[in-house]
Amino acid sequence: MALNTTVNHQPFLLSINRHREGEIKNVFPGVHVTPCFLDPETGIWVLYARFEAGTQMPKHFHTGTVHFYTTAGAWNYVEYPDDVQTEGSYLYEPGGSVHTFSSREGTEGFMVVHGANVNFDENDNYMNIMDAGWIEQMLQEVAKATGQAVPRYVRPGGGARFSA
After folding, report:
1. In this structure, is the dihedral angle defined by the CA atoms of residues 42, 110, 51 and 26, taken in order, positive or negative?
2. Residue 38, Cβ density class (10 Å: 0-12 exposed, 13-18 middle, ≥19 buried)
3. DSSP per residue over 94-105, as a string?
4. pLDDT beyond 90 at 156
5. pLDDT tens-digit readout, 60-76
6. d(C-alpha 25, C-alpha 31), whole Å
7. Residue range 43-55: mean pLDDT, rounded
8. Which of 42, 103, 154, 159 could form a disulfide with 107 if both were Cys (CB 3.0 to 4.6 A apart)?
9. Using one digit for the tens of pLDDT, what is the confidence trace for 94-128?
10. Does 2 have pLDDT greater than 80?
């Protein structure tokens, strides 16, 4: 194979700019999301999210790993009040971890998630499963219901099929 031969030729780069693409406001109350990469087949999702001051998300269990890079503000998990994540913080979360996101002052950052969040209410009752497919559907529904545009994002794959 020649050096200039590629397995997946790209006629253009799969690149987005969150400032140009925009975000979907209030996907959840006080949570604004720019989807970057959603792959329902592999279960990988990458989002840029802005959380307003006072936001608390449901307690959740991770089926896979999470990488979270904080770009502004501060947040912590309720279960770890002394481990506040601030601008410039990178957090790795192993699969099987359980915690509750909270931001008193507001925050924003990038998250790369492998798998799903299994969400629970304040009494530890099962609520739902949040994975790449569910997020894609939710973003489209919220955008349509509120008259917002869905920002462009990378969506690989396209369904299972036989090779040629």
Report:
1. negative
2. buried
3. -TT-EE-EEESS
4. no
5. 999 999 999 999 999 99
6. 7
7. 98
8. 103
9. 999 999 999 999 999 999 999 999 999 999 999 99
10. no
Q: Rounded to an integer, what distance in angstroms lies between the CA atom of residue 148 and that of residue 23? A: 9
Residue 82: count other Cβ atoms within 10 Å of its Cβ: 5
In degrees and rounded to multiples of 5, residue 138 shows phi and psi of: -60, -45
**Is 23 in contact with 32 (CB distance < 8 Å)?**
yes
Task: Assign 3-state DSSP to the chain and report helix, strand, coil percentages, each to 5.
Answer: 10, 45, 45
Spell out the residues 6+ positions from residue 23 whose beta carbon is closer than 8 angstroms to its own.
32, 33, 34, 48, 50, 151
Three-class SS state of 135: helix
User: Nearest-5° angle of CA 38, CA 42, CA 86?
Assistant: 55
Across the chain, the runs of DSSP E, i.e. the strands, are 24-28, 31-39, 44-51, 55-56, 59-62, 66-77, 80-86, 90-93, 98-99, 101-103, 107-114, 117-120, 126-130
Mean pLDDT for the chain overall: 93
Query: What average pLDDT score do residues 35-58 get?
Result: 96
Residue 105 has phi, psi (to 5 degrees) of -100, -10
